[in-house]
Amino acid sequence: MKLDLVIRNIGQLLTMAAGGPVKGKDMNQLSVETDMAIGVKDGNVVWIGKDAEVNDLQYDRFINANGKLVTPGLVDPHTHLVFGGSREHEMALKQQGVPYLDILKQGGGILSTVRATRQATEEELFEKGMFHLQRMMSYGITTVEAKSGYGLNEETELKQLRVARRLNEHHPVDVVSTFLGAHAIPTEYKEDPDAFLEAMLAMLPDIKKQGLAEFVDIFCETGVFSVDQSRAFLQKAKEYGFDVKIHADEIDPLGGTELAVELGAISGDHLVGASHQGIHALASSHTIAVLLPGTSFYLGKESYAKARKMIEAGVAVALSTDFNPGSSPTENLQFIMSLAALKLKMTPEEIWHAVTVNAAYAINRGNVAGQIRIGRPADIVVWDAPNYQYVPYHYGVNHVNTVIKAGNIVYERGEGYVSSPVS
Ligand code: IZC
Ligand code: ZN
Q1: Can you say how many angstroms the Cα of residue 27 is from the centroid of all Cα atoms in its chain?
Q2: pLDDT for the residue 423
Q3: What is the pTM assigned to this prediction?
Q4: Does ligand 1 have an atom closer than 6 angstroms to the CB of 109?
């Protein structure tokens, strides 16, 4: 059999192979193979072995990993990818100490992005989405979740979801869609949030029929939606056949973590204010904790999610950028890996589980993404890093050399880049 592609001379290979989400202390157990090679055919991984054995293989093309690190493509399981405009004008307010939720209460924040997204054409949103997606891919992301939630009416929510679908079709990165119609209370429903939630629920049969979203999410937060509203809303979403996610305990600890477990959510996201009970409930559930330290960092908060406590309790933790124009405007998941090390005190071993296998399970892609395995799509990153610890350590810059998606080379470091010497 002649292979399409072989990646040779891999100094450290992390396959992240696992039979399911990796929980608690197991997240610190990382299998590292040295002097390896990977063979790809028809988009899938078909061979993994020692580099010395490659001489027996036939192949069309090869990539020399130069003795460096190779991992699965990264998975970003929580982003607000499709939106109009940007919010740099809010930076001054933030510097003056105006809290995120106050900006929202004054009609800014999410509502400012809602106005821009309603005004934007579908084509404009698509072009902008492509731009951000391309940048994500350059940082090593090969699968991403994308939420709606900047329409808050039927017309614009559907527009956002259609854009996400088109992005999935036209860009190599896989885009997995979530309906977040319950992201904020739009001005026109200010006096009657329950009627707004009814209107968002009424969209679900059509979204299901058109296959426009796999998950339904809600922003459970002070001044947005309460725990009771979130419970009723997500229960209905489940009845319509959706898996559910929840923005829980991000800014104020309301008990959203417990609600995520109670509902059997595929993930509970943020969890900064998760209670002791909430953390233990998570540990004995199938719900994955998606932590987004970029938002604590960007909003200048003292408190971060208690990742150590979660991992010690036995929770499966994933990490994400939360890419959005308000609380985390960055596509750089590698920077989030550094924040996870510095602020969440996660080990490099835990961090790699959190951005690959666990992140894939958090968006129901555990069987196709987040692991390098025979018979699975070849979603692979060749890094310009001598070892896996190096990526979270050397912060704020891009360590990607080559990105391979479903066997195709989709991103290579541009000309003028000087590769670091092998240490
Ligand atoms: O646009 O501010 N937290 N939703 C909940 C966000 C942040 C996105 C935004
Ligand atoms: Zn979010």
Answers
A1: 18
A2: 57
A3: 0.98
A4: yes
